[in-house]
């Protein structure tokens, strides 16, 4: 595998060189890394089983890997034996879920992403100040359910720009919007624009709710997409940010765009006549799945890999305080891992791609 300039150019007319443009940043964000490591360390420290409410992150490979190590995934806390230990996923939970866990004397580890917690706190504050809160997000998504549960009497979900006409508020002068952290930036701002047409005094949240990683991955895809015949996004179907990357690639000029869970889902027919393939991955995707895709593309003749970096991420979050306290009490070192520092799983060959 080779590296080339970060400038993205269309392949020269008549060229037969096949290449991959590898978007960076991609893959695990700090919140996902924190949540996954929390389950791993809980299994090491307490032993199996460790229960997890919902999927710890929206990635099939990660969930299956943790389940094989002893994590037990459940839909609700009433499926967890009384007094057992349960981890709350990175997407966050409502106060009602916390109360249900307490009623069953469950030992909880809250792996909610701190950026989701920030949105929860905004919802609580605006509700206390008697605002109507418009939550831009996807109805039924775990993160949206958790945020809405902070103030259900004040929050209404706005699914898309087309849903704006259905919004009804008590006082258009006491109105604020917040958002799910994993949305398309462009679609969210279009929703806000339409809301502001109806409600000119709509207030903004104090800071961006769409997380840095979601934005960075979308920017990177926009950078490579115009030069790509095909863009492949590695990510699961229930991963909101992965699905958005597929859409962003098309909107930014890619000729075609596909989402896959693993390299096994690649269809060679997608690449007929293609010279440039873009590759990215959602924020819940371990890098090893991307490497598998690159190996498969190499076998299809796409052996030149150019990593195109639009941002550098160095944000880290501490482990959940409950787990951190137990590790410290036992004299166990508390890890502060980043995506780059985590080891390649034993037995897997890492492809060498020099960042540029």
UniProtKB/TrEMBL annotation:
**Chain residues that bind dimethylallyl diphosphate:** 58, 91, 141, 239-241, 284
Q: List, from the UniProt record, the residues annotated as the active site of this protein.
A: 143
Cofactor(s) of this protein = [4Fe-4S] cluster
Gene behind the chain: ispH
Q: Give binding positions for (2E)-4-hydroxy-3-methylbut-2-enyl diphosphate.
A: 58, 91, 141, 181, 239-241, 284
Basic and acidic residues bias: start-end ranges: 337-356
Do you know which NCBIfam families this protein is assigned to? ispH_lytB, PRK01045.1-3, PRK01045.1-4
Q: How is the cofactor bound?
A: Binds 1 [4Fe-4S] cluster per subunit.
Task: Region Disordered: list its residue ranges.
Answer: 329-356
Q: Which domain of life is it from?
A: Bacteria
Record keywords: 4Fe-4S, Iron, Iron-sulfur, Isoprene biosynthesis, Metal-binding, Oxidoreductase
Q: Which family does it belong to?
A: Belongs to the IspH family.
Which lineage is the organism of this entry classified under, starting from the top rank?
Answer: Bacteria, Bacillati, Actinomycetota, Actinomycetes, Micrococcales
Residues binding [4Fe-4S] cluster, per UniProt: 29, 113, 211
The record's listing under CDD domains reads: lytB_ispH (cd13944)
- Stated EC number for the protein is 1.17.7.4
Q: What the protein does?
A: Catalyzes the conversion of 1-hydroxy-2-methyl-2-(E)-butenyl 4-diphosphate (HMBPP) into a mixture of isopentenyl diphosphate (IPP) and dimethylallyl diphosphate (DMAPP). Acts in the terminal step of the DOXP/MEP pathway for isoprenoid precursor biosynthesis.
Q: Name the reaction it catalyses.
A: dimethylallyl diphosphate + 2 oxidized [2Fe-2S]-[ferredoxin] + H2O = (2E)-4-hydroxy-3-methylbut-2-enyl diphosphate + 2 reduced [2Fe-2S]-[ferredoxin] + 2 H(+); isopentenyl diphosphate + 2 oxidized [2Fe-2S]-[ferredoxin] + H2O = (2E)-4-hydroxy-3-methylbut-2-enyl diphosphate + 2 reduced [2Fe-2S]-[ferredoxin] + 2 H(+)
Looking up HAMAP family in the UniProt record yields: IspH
Binding locations of isopentenyl diphosphate: 58, 91, 141, 239-241, 284
One Gene Ontology molecular-function label? 4-hydroxy-3-methylbut-2-enyl diphosphate reductase activity
Descriptive protein name? 4-hydroxy-3-methylbut-2-enyl diphosphate reductase
